[in-house]
User: Fold these one by one.
Assistant:
Number 1:
Amino acid sequence: MARQTEWPALQARVSNRLSRYFCTTPFKLRNPRAMVSFTFDDFPDSAADVGVPILDRHDAKATFYVAGSQVGKWSDHWQGVAADKIVELHRRGHEIACHTFSHVRATDLDATRLAAEIDDNRRYLLGLDPSIRIDNFAYPYGLGSVWRKPQLAKTFRSSRSIIPGINSGVVDLQYLRSTPLINHHIDEEDIDRVFDALVDSNGWLIFYGHDVASEPSPYGCTPSLLRYATEAATKRNVAIMTVAGALRTAGV
């Protein structure tokens, strides 16, 4: 029984690792200046209620990867955002993106089931507001699937991983790198270092996180850490953009 349980986990890790090296959609970024995107997975309500006002001080917009089945529901760590808040933020210029409907790992899905998850999530979000455009995807739990990348490329402009790094030069649009904006993984000195490297490379930095709270979950950040990151961007004249906006700027 233990081997049966371990096998899917091993397959997922292998598929995710292979995803890093088998480039599905190579593209050379052509952004004229360094860019950063702030993204939030699963969309806890605190990302909207606490995180967005911090971004507002810089007239900045975020990308929220939504799993429709979690909207308005309590998880182990946070309350999911309400449906009307998704609509409000979309109408204010924030990006609503896809995280599958059931928040299931792409590595656990065959082509038919992945298509169904995407269709269910699209149907749910468009039911909230038909003007929502769902152009970008983030792998649930950060696990990319080497087998599903070509399928995702037919549906989304990009897919985001959780492998740290700056996107610069030629990137794989279906396996974009991102850096955790999570207190357990990064501090203010780390933020300064990654922004300095970003400016030097004229690249695109994607931060990912979840809740924003004074006592965040193991997957979230404090308001002060988010504030420090936004101010670090502004201080270096780094453009803060949604994922969709950064892709347009880079010529995708």
Number 2:
Amino acid sequence: MPADRFVALLKSAGVTAVADVRSVPFSRRFPWFSGKALAPRLAREGIGYLPFGDALGGRPRDETLYRDGIADYEAMAARAEFRAGLDRVVEHARRHCVCLMCAEREPLDCHRCLLVGRALAQRGFAIGHILATGTIEPQAATEDRLLATIKADPDLFRDRAARLADAYRARTQKVAARKKD
């Protein structure tokens, strides 16, 4: 996506700050999305740039945060560093309309939705995902799409929260970072 299109999407959604949740805010393919180039570009547009990859990134450096070689989002969300990162995002959200940014276009393919957005929604925040079309998809609609990706649960008495937790786990297994050997 060209930088101008990205900025236009942010402006159309009323975003005043971007919280970059990439573990490594760098892009060889799209250098204008690297943190060092993006921060001044956004500043010229009146949009703040907030690096959060250290606390909210999806590629943990700690080897204990991988299960069977795959990043364990539930273990990551339980860490004090992650909760502190969320607290910092919440503090910025008191003054700004904050957009979480990572590398994936599709929310269901990215930890910003499956890990960070989920945790913020559990704290009671209204989360919306800016899609490439400019449409803002509410977290509940994204979760409906997530539920549709798993096979129907034969237990009719399981509530939505339990089915959703299973769906989050299954999707994480497919898209989360893999440990490098």
